Amino acid sequence: MTNTILQLLSILITASLVNNVVLSQFLGLCPFLGVSRKTDTAFGMGMALTFVMTLASFVCSLIYKFILTPLDLSFLQTIVFILVIAMLVQFVEMFLKKYVVSLYQSLGVYLPLITTNCAVLGIALNNVTDEYNTLESTICGAATAIGFTIAIVILAGIREKIQYNDIPKPFKGMPIVLITSGLMAIAFTGFAGLK
Amino acid sequence: MSNMEMKKGALGLRADTPGERFFNGLIEENPTLVLMIGMCPTLAVTTSAINGLSMGLATTFVLALSNAVISALRKVIPDTVRIPSFIVVIASFVTLVQLIMQAYLPALNKALGVYIPLIVVNCIIFGRAEAYASKHGIVPSFFDGLGMGLGFTCAITIIGFFRELIGGGTMFDIQILGEGTVLPGAIGAFFGRYQPVRIFIQQAGAFLVLAFLIAIMNQVKFNLEKKGKDTSKFGSGGCCNDIELKDPKTVKEQLLAKESKGAQG
Lengths: 195, 265
Fold this sequence. Notes:
Chain A is an all-alpha fold. Helix content of chain A is 73%, strand content 0%.
């Protein structure tokens, strides 16, 4: 029992900090760079991604275990997972719109951005490669998304600060954001010691 | 006369011919350097020139063939279900690439890892399917994919080449600069002896290299604007552009506009 909890804790820390999804695996860069102008929208994006990624990791893990493996179709995982994720996002959007309006108002605008997010598919595929069981996959999905939220909120905070700084003209806009991300990536390598 | 000009495509060749499409993707609308789309693999796999080259070729294969198939099916696929249909076509070719690499190039497959199946969500492929292949014939679509793919390959091989050379002193995995090698010419006069800058093959290096690349492209764009040339094709971050979030309606509109520009991701 203690071993299982320790194992889950290790997955949680590894997925959220040590192998941070954007800063060390380069997945989900588009929302990371695109929706990080303000702290509150960045946080909303992070929460929406946490919701979708936890659910997608859980569903994809179940599908892999109970449909693809028994039928010996595991080579179809890429096609199946991308369709499942796209469908899941649509379904979540419709469900929230109908039944949980308050949540839809705060997270709904981010959902279309997540459909083709490479981070969601990447984590679902990584869970299979790492041979995680359903519980571990779900924890890994949630932890990865928390790592994304930490990174995007920090970046948004820095961007709010540097908005009015005097930056050389060619570096205005995306280049300075990328340099900031690069410095954050250096800082996050410090977490490697936690492993 | 104006009609003639309308039909002119890249490099002054006639529009929609195979050759014009090929050079359009390779030079005029280079996806990485000019349009700046498909940035995730550009950053992730360019730790060496070989990795960049193989990732590029795998993407080119998927791009050219999925473009041809989508173009062949463009009259069969109903408009409302086109996005899932495109995804299935693209994902099938990606699975094909994945199986081939697992069987014949296991070492490379391990090095590129999860980024091979993630070709599925590369915005270049989806963008070309949506913006070009679903509206044009099979042959130009195939060459459009080939040109775009090779343009992508060239760009990420170059990025990989520099990261590898500065970060580890190797060139296509062959050690050419050892620690303390005297650098030639002006570079040598400035830096003295070679020291591997490890950060360039780590994650942070990818962000820094891309930042400088976009800054250089911005400068090129400013220079072209000074000369009064048209720079409307230049993207400034592609799918990584800022998305303003106000209310759901504007977001939907922006997404639609981005989709038609082919910058999804």
